[in-house]
Each structure stands twice: as structure tokens, then as C-alpha cells.
Amino acid sequence: MASAELLKMTQSVDGKVMAVDDRVKGVEGKMQNVRNDVRDVDHRVQGVGKDISIRVQGVDDKLDQVNRSLFL
Q1: What is the pTM of this model?
Q2: Which of 2, 29, 56, 57 has minimal CB crowding within 10 Å?
Q3: How far is Cα 26 from Cα 29, in angstroms, rounded to an integer?
Q4: Residues 14, 16, 20, 26: is their CA dihedral positive or negative?
């Protein structure tokens, strides 16, 4: 009787551990999605930074042209 009860408890614990394992795998999958989203945002921010640099350089070039034309 004690062995049967022990087996029953062991199976119950095993089932709960498997459920926790499934939940952890679910969280792991979600974390991978978050990492991918962060990576995508990082790439977009880098693109914006490059765009701003190009635009600032264009403004600098125009200011240089204006300054040269004023002193000619």
C-alpha cells in the first residue's frame, strides 16, 4: 500500500515538473522573440543615426557654400 502511494505521488510530481518545463520553454520562446525585437529596433536606430549624419553633413556643406559665397 505504501509503495502504491509513493508511486502515485511520484507520478504527480513528475507531471508537475513536466508542466513547469513546458512553461519554461514557453518563456524561453518569448524571450527569443524579445531579443529579435530588440535587435530589429537597434538596426532601425542605427539607420536613423546614419540618416541624420547624412542630413547634417548636407547642411554643413550648404553652410560652407554660403560662407564661401559671402566672402568672395
Answers
A1: 0.54
A2: 2
A3: 5
A4: positive
Q: For residue 24, report the phi and psi dihedrals to the nearest 5 degrees.
A: -60, -40
* 3-state secondary structure at position 71: coil
Residue type, 29: G
Residues 59/65/68/69 CA torsion (nearest 10 deg): -120
- Report, in angstroms and rounded to the nearest whole number, the Rg of the chain calculated over CA atoms: 31
Please tell me the distance from the alpha carbon of residue 69 to that of residue 67, in angstroms, as a whole number: 5
Alpha-carbon gap, residue 26 to 33, rounded angstroms: 11
Per-residue pLDDT, 2:
84
For position 39, what pLDDT does the model report?
Answer: 93
